[in-house]
Specification:
- The protein has 277 residues and is mainly alpha-helical.
- It is 61% helix and 6% strand.
- The chain has four domains: 9-99, no CATH class; 103-138 and 186-237, no CATH class; 141-182; 239-271, no CATH class.
- The protein has helices at 9-19, 23-65, 68-101, 125-131, 146-156, 162-178, 188-199, 219-230, 243-256, 261-267; strands spanning 110-112, 115-117, 203-207, 214-218.
- It has a four-stranded mixed beta sheet.
- Strand 1 (110-112) and strand 2 (115-117) form a beta hairpin.
């Protein structure tokens, strides 16, 4: 976990990064990322110095308590163990760096902003501009969703007296009819790109496993990767959702326990949703 003096900086920085995509903002993001990385390095160094000081004090105490033979044995064992852990950690980190350097992108793959094209198709600028908005971007509808609005109004006034409900219904219809057309938040090029992506079944668009990126893949490649995952015996098809019975049992056990009430409330599962493939 990245540490800095103000822990609220990181979530605010990530939130701003999702909202602004100008060239100036990109330069600011890059400088801020390096500044946060430098702060993390300095913080780790401070912790290492503190631990080294504590180890030195402990070493001096042990040398005064233990005999020379015992101390030599303990010193040799701890040194060998530390060396073994250090070499294992170093090799693991080196593998991570190597895997990062060996980009899994093909020669024809391109990266533009937060969009990574892993497909064999050539993607135009309109598609890149559209997908850089993120998969959670809400596209303005061409016209107000009248049916959905009236359905919501009908549910809301269900408990009202008949006269008040009819008055509310008529007033809602009047407001909806007078409503102005929503301002389009897509350019004509982006709107055309959206329609073309809807019709293109050869492409699959999804979020990256890590990072705030959108990935474009060939649908055949995506199906092949998912099929290979299903060959793993770790996965199996469940006839129903097991959390529907597990959640009430877990909550019941926690409430019957002797844990403090505040802790029990925190431990009780809420908004549970199992992982799905």
């Amino acid at each position: 976990m990245l540490r800095c003096r103000d822990h609220n900086i990181i979530p605010q920085f990530l939130e701003l990064r999702q909202q602004f995509h100008t060239k100036a903002a990109t330069r600011i993001y890059k400088r801020t990322s390096f500044a946060l990385l430098r702060e993390r390095i300095h913080d780790n160094r401070r912790e290492l110095n503190q631990v080294s000081h504590q180890l030195l004090q402990l070493r001096l105490r042990l040398t005064n308590i233990l005999s020379s033979s015992y101390w030599d044995l303990i010193d040799r064992l701890t040194f060998n163990k530390a060396t073994q852990i250090g070499e294992h950690t170093r090799s693991r980190q080196q593998r991570k760096v190597t895997n990062l350097q060996k980009t899994q992108l093909s020669e024809n793959s391109t990266i533009k902003g937060t969009v990574i094209n892993l497909s064999t198709q050539i993607i135009d600028e309109g598609v890149y501009s559209l997908l850089q908005k993120g998969l959670n971007f809400a596209v303005t509808p061409r016209r107000p969703p009248i049916e959905d609005l009236l359905t919501g109004v009908g549910k809301a006034i269900r408990s009202l007296p008949s006269e008040m409900a009819e008055e509310a219904r008529q007033e809602s219809v009047r407001i909806i009819k007078r409503a102005n057309k929503p301002t389009d938040n897509l350019t004509r090029t982006e709107r055309t790109a959206l329609l073309s992506l809807r019709k293109n079944t050869d492409l699959t668009i999804l979020t990256a496993d890590k990072g705030n990126a959108t990935v474009i893949m060939n649908t055949t490649d995506y199906i092949q990767k998912m099929t290979s995952l299903l060959q793993d015996p770790s996965y199996r098809i469940l006839p129903n959702d097991p959390t529907e019975s597990t959640e009430p049992k877990t909550t019941s056990f926690i409430k019957k326990s002797t844990l403090p009430e505040e802790l029990s409330k925190k431990l009780c599962p809420t908004c549970w949703r199992p992982p799905r493939l």
